[in-house]
Amino acid sequence: MRKRLMTPLSLIGAAIALLAGAPASATEVLFNFSGTGFFGGTLNANGTLTTNDMSFINPLNGFTAQSIIGISGTFNGSPITGLAPGLFGANNLFYFTGPFFVDGNGLGFTTAAGVSANLFVTNDTSYRVNTLGAGLLTGLVTASATPIAAAVPEPATWAMMLLGFGAVGFSMRSARRKTKLSFAKA
């Protein structure tokens, strides 16, 4: 039996498959905060943030961040229904470096109870929450965030991976077709 060498087309297919299989760097982050409003009432939340796969260094503070593209969890017992970019100036950035996981613009989100909230860092370097809707609250909170997983592949990553596997399969099939069978005449 003869060993078969890889053709240039099959090498290209293999390279595409390897590159397409590289993981995306989207991250899931567990977050929570708790505190009491300045005039009473609680400010409690916990859940999961999902960031995109595009890290950048914020020129304003020099820390590495990613955009928050998803949120789930609860705030004061009500399910969080989504992000609210622009609420109180919220830019929805998650910081992987620096002393805080949000900046002075913060994280804006909404709940099923009709509350809109913004978690941000104040000038005196503490976390604060402002809310709009049922029961207006504002107050300082203790907050934390812990990245838990990288590898939420983006749809484009899946498409590239499937394209790579298809290219490998095609090159293997075309290499097989080139083999010619011939029978001896009797």
Short summary:
By secondary structure, the protein is an alpha+beta fold. It is built from 2 helices and 10 strands, in the order H-E-E-E-E-E-E-E-E-E-E-H.
Topology:
Layout: H1 8-20, E1 27-36, E2 42-51, E3 56-57, E4 64-75, E5 78-83, E6 93-95, E7 107-111, E8 116-121, E9 127-132, E10 138-150, H2 155-177
Antiparallel strand pairs: 1-2, 1-10, 2-4, 3-4, 4-5, 4-6, 5-7, 7-8, 8-9, 9-10
How would you describe the overall organization of this protein?
The chain is built from two helices and ten strands, in the order αββββββββββα. The protein has two domains: 1-23 and 154-186; 27-150, no CATH class. Helices cover 19% and strands 39% of the residues. The protein is α+β, with helices and mostly antiparallel strands and 186 residues long. Helix 1 (8-20) runs antiparallel to helix 2 (155-177). A hairpin with a 2-residue loop joins strand 4 and strand 5 (78-83). The chain has an eight-stranded antiparallel β-barrel with strand order 1-2-4-5-7-8-9-10.
Task: Give short descriptive properties of this protein.
2 domains, alpha+beta, eight-stranded antiparallel barrel, 10 strands, 186 residues, elongated, 2 helices, 39% strand
